[in-house]
Amino acid sequence: MTIPAQNLPRLLAEAKRWFDEALLASMQAAGEQPLTVGQAAVFAALDEEGTTISGLARRMGVTRQTAHQAVHALIGMGLLEQVPDPASARSRLIRPTAEGARVHRRAQHTLAVIEDVLAERIGAGVVSTLREALAVPMGEPPLVEAP
């Protein structure tokens, strides 16, 4: 009897959860302000020159309200700021403060160390192959008709 392969989306979600938990716990242990997974995701979605709330929501795959809540919590923590958008008088850009940029650099370094730990555990070649496979463009999601 063969055992069916585990559901790939579930495996990917569990891997992301492993990284998120390691990052957030490591950052807090290092004395950084505690963040939620959603707040940390804002930093990954930001452009260097700043990003609108709508752009953040789209990149994060959440509603504007959810992105707005995360952003305003991070503004309150002194990690993000709102500035006028030079391309649109009606828009505002969200960007890291100097403190937010420092925390983001520390998080990037921490993620690199976490990735090194993963490479020690499952093999550097496996991690490299996984990164390459996930970087290949997948195209638009398929629309599959139910059987």
How would you characterize the largest beta sheet? 2 strands, antiparallel
Q: Provide the CATH superfamily of the domain at 34-129.
A: Winged helix-like DNA-binding domain superfamily/Winged helix DNA-binding domain
CATH hierarchy, class of the domain at 34-129 = Mainly Alpha
Name the helicity range. 55-70%
| Spatial shape | globular
How do the strands of the widest beta sheet line up side by side? Answer: 1-2
User: How many strands in all?
Assistant: 2
Please write out the topology.
Blueprint: H1 8-29, H2 37-45, H3 53-60, H4 64-76, E1 80-85, E2 88-96, H5 98-122, H6 124-135
Antiparallel strand pairs: 1-2
Helix pairs in contact: 1-5, 3-4, 5-6
Structural features, described:
The protein has 147 residues and is mainly alpha-helical. The protein has a domain at 34-129: Winged helix-like DNA-binding domain superfamily/Winged helix DNA-binding domain (Arc Repressor Mutant, subunit A), CATH 1.10.10.10. Helices cover 61% and strands 10% of the residues. It has helices at 8-29, 37-45, 53-60, 64-76, 98-122, 124-135, and strands spanning 80-85, 88-96. The chain has a two-stranded antiparallel ribbon. Strand 1 and strand 2 form a beta hairpin. It is globular, with a radius of gyration of 18 Å. The mean pLDDT is 94.
